[in-house]
Amino acid sequence: MNRRQLGAWARSLLSAVPLLLGATLLAFYLIAQFGPDTRFAQVGRGADAAGLEALARQLDEHRPWLLRYVDTLAGWFRLDFGHAAISGEPVAALLARTLPVSLLALMPGFVLGQLLALGLALAGAWRIGRWPDRLVGALSATSMSLSLIVVLIALQSLFGVWLDWLPVRGWSAAGPVDYLRHVTLPTLVIVVTSLGYQLRFFRTLFVEALSDPPVRTARAYGLPPRRILLGYVLRTALLPISTRILYALPVLLLGGSLVLENHFGIPGVGQVAYEALLAGDEQVLMALVGGGSVLLILLHALSGGLLRALDPRLARPSR
Fold first, then answer.
1. Taking CA 135 as the corner, what is the angle to CA 132 and CA 139, rounded to the nearest 5 degrees?
2. Could you list the residue range(s) of the whole structural domain that residue 217 is in?
3. Do residues 299 and 250 touch, judged by C-beta distance below 8 A?
4. What are the Cα distances from residue 159, in Å, to 140, 165, 185?
5. Residue by residue, what is the 3-state secondary structure of 79-144?
6. Helix-helix angle 148-155:257-264, to 10 degrees
7. Mean pLDDT confidence for 192-207
8. In the structure, what pLDDT confidence band is assigned to residue 87 with cuts at 50, 70 and 90?
9. Into how many domains does the chain fold?
10. How far is it, in rounded angstroms, from Cα 271 to Cα 264?
11. Residue 89's pLDDT band (boundaries 50, 70, 90)?
12. What does the pLDDT average to over 106-118?
């Protein structure tokens, strides 16, 4: 990596700092002004005013929200993310314990969904207008029309109740068999609900790449389909594909985990976020918002670096 590329990465990261500050400031304001009161989650609704005031001072919630926000940012620079209001556990330890669970539960479905969408989209684009393409179109339309809640309940009822093959709720990764039994349902849900959008996007890219004159010439000369699809078509569409996959990952980790983990009883980041939302836990919620913002910033910088690495024209200085 040369100095010009390093400079582009540095500029990309620096330009995202205002985004990080704006996102965390807005999130902290909304949590502090409109979120649930953490004190009631600890002492209940029957507490008197004096007890609530004492607890507010103990939790450091008696000061203005802007000062608490500044203190939170200062703590981040010291790698101190505070403590969870309900359990008292350090937020860093809480996330370090639950993030691996979320990755184990969600990443198989994410990876399998991307690979399946790529393979089906290549097959449909190669046989455009024929039965593989019509099958891809039907799968895409069906997947996009299904609600996440409908898919959750249907798959739970089928495999967990009627067939009794898989556990309906709970999580265990004590061994390979146990892990497969608990991860199968979340994986199926992620694949079914995400397949349609990815299929349509990838197929559009591949159809466009297959219409290029060099590809039409290669097909006319009888080059093997595998060589054309993998050697040219997939390579040509690699830039938008990599960008879309990179930005789909935080959406799944931050949004999908909130629904899936609570529905299946998986003790991951999504369940922590749900409990923190109910309790109005400022420190946990701010750590999640800040971590999500940093993840998006890093993925944005990584996406830009990939674009410049895969397409040398973008790395050349403009004249």
1. 140
2. 98-315
3. yes
4. 23, 5, 8
5. CCCCECCCCCCEHHHHHHHHHHHHHHHHHHHHHHHHHHHHHHHHHHHHCCCCHHHHHHHHHHHHHH
6. 30
7. 91
8. confident
9. 1
10. 10
11. confident
12. 93
The predicted-structure confidence for 126-184, as pLDDT tens digits, reads as follows 888 888 889 989 999 999 988 888 999 999 999 988 988 899 888 888 889 999 999 99
pTM: 0.81
Residue with structure tokens 């005031």?
A: 53
What distance in Å separates the CA atoms of residue 256 and residue 294, rounded to the nearest whole number?
A: 18
Name the token pair of 263. 């529905």
Evaluate whether residue 1 is within a structural domain: no
What residue type is assigned to position 216 of the chain?
Answer: R
Name the strand (E) or helix (H) holding 288.
Answer: helix 282-310
- Here the CATH number for the domain that contains residue 242 is 1.10.3720.10
At 63 the three-state DSSP class reads: coil
Furthest CA-CA distance within the chain? 86
φ, ψ of residue 83 in degrees (nearest 5): -125, 145
**CA 235 vs CA 170, 198, 205, 217, 239: distances in Å:** 41, 17, 11, 17, 8
Residue 77 lies in a domain: no
Q: Answer left, alpha or beta for residue 172, where phi above 0 means left and psi between -120 and 50 means alpha.
A: beta
On whether the CB atoms of residues 194 and 108 are closer than 8 A, the answer is no
Q: Is 164 part of any domain?
A: yes
Question: Is residue 39 within 8 Å of residue 52, measured between CB atoms?
Answer: yes
115 within domain boundaries: yes
> Among all chains, which residue has been given the structure tokens 């079914």?
192
